[in-house]
Write a structure and sequence with these properties.
alpha+beta
């Protein structure tokens, strides 16, 4: 990466991070986003709040700052205060309940996984997070939603229990990532076992169905689990399936999805950059990544807001695309772009040894 390109990426990361920090409001809740007309959105999403924390932890690890620390502390305390409570009848299981979303009786698997991934990725000396016992209790809640085969229930209701009518594409990978990150805080092998069973279940399901979704969270979880994994070949084969799916959708513009929206490209970049070093050298997918990744990065940079009140924000789509909502801004658009750019800027992680 030449110096000029590195400077462009660094500037985009810094600007997006500052915009994200500027969205924090009194009490620690983010301004969720703005429509293409500039009007603030009224909805909220707990999982995306946790995702913003995840990106802030990455940014702080890369470039510690007082601004990041202040934003992290406010947003972290808000999430814990507003959402983290025990599961009825299980004082050893804590969930993230969706109060800000207007569903106070529902808890999402993905929100729990992302919160763990964020909290366990931040040094407690550098930023506030719940006590370790609470983090482990969130891990217990996640494992309580998993069966022996590794399948997760995506939602839990305070009075009805597990809700089995809907499965999320991304929640299992988010849960596996959170469990793996939790192992660094609480060295309980159950966390790693649950994470690996989740990923192997996804691998079996996709191999048998012949249908593989562009599941970037599964790739991020695979990279995190790799040093501890027992079934590496199955995990690599699964990662290759996902990467092939993502690469097959790349457009001449560089976008990694046919819809042209920014976030499908940034999320897929996150996943592919995470596992790039784990793929077999010389494999066709590995060679294809070397061609595809720079084009996708260039595409995402076109969605950066360069001036005005929202300088640093990331648009739903670049302005030159055919999308009536191209100018929409949301915290998750910035979060995923930051994470992708940081992964690209910092290069592939060396393949760790088993042990």
């Amino acid at each position: 990466m030449d110096t000029a390109h590195a400077a462009v990426i660094d500037s985009a990361i810094e600007a997006a991070a500052h915009w994200l920090c500027a969205q924090i409001r009194f009490g620690g809740r983010f301004e969720y986003g703005y429509g293409a007309d500039g009007v603030a959105m009224q909805r909220y999403n707990v999982a995306r709040h946790a995702g913003a924390l995840y990106a802030l932890a990455q940014w702080h690890g890369r470039a510690p700052s007082a601004l990041c620390s202040r934003t992290w502390d406010a947003a972290s305390r808000y999430l814990a205060t507003a959402c983290v409570r025990a599961v009825p009848g299980r004082t050893d299981h804590f969930a993230l309940w969706g109060d800000p979303e207007g569903h106070p009786l529902e808890a999402k698997l993905g929100a729990a996984g992302l919160a763990l991934a964020a909290w366990c990725g931040m040094d407690p000396i550098q930023g506030w997070r719940p006590p370790d016992a609470i983090l482990s209790a969130i891990g217990g809640f996640i494992l309580g939603l998993q069966d022996e085969q590794g399948h997760f229930v995506s939602k839990y209701h305070a009075t009805k229990g597990p809700l089995t009518h809907w499965d999320s594409l991304y929640y299992p990978g988010e849960a596996a990532l959170g469990l793996t990150r939790l192992y660094a805080v609480d060295a309980n092998p159950d966390w790693l076992d649950g994470a690996e069973r989740a990923l192997l279940h996804l691998a079996r399901k996709r191999r048998h169905s012949g249908r593989c979704e562009p599941d970037h969270w599964a790739l991020l979880a695979t990279e995190a689990l790799w040093p501890y994994a027992m079934e590496r070949q199955q995990l690599v084969d699964h990662a290759l399936m996902i990467v092939d799916t993502m690469l097959a959708e790349q457009q001449p513009s560089g976008a990694l999805s046919r819809c042209g929206r920014t976030t499908p490209t940034t999320t897929r970049l996150e996943g592919m950059l995470a596992v790039r070093a784990l793929l077999p050298p010389g494999h066709a997918a590995t060679r294809a990544l070397e061609r595809a990744l720079p084009q996708a990065i260039a595409y995402t940079l076109q969605a950066c807001v360069s001036s005005g009140a929202h300088a640093g924000a990331v648009q739903r789509a670049p302005s030159n695309t055919i999308d009536s909502k191209a100018g929409e801004l949301r915290i998750d658009y910035a979060q995923h772009a930051m994470s992708a750019w940081m992964a690209w800027r910092d290069g592939a992680t060396p393949v760790p040894s088993r042990g």
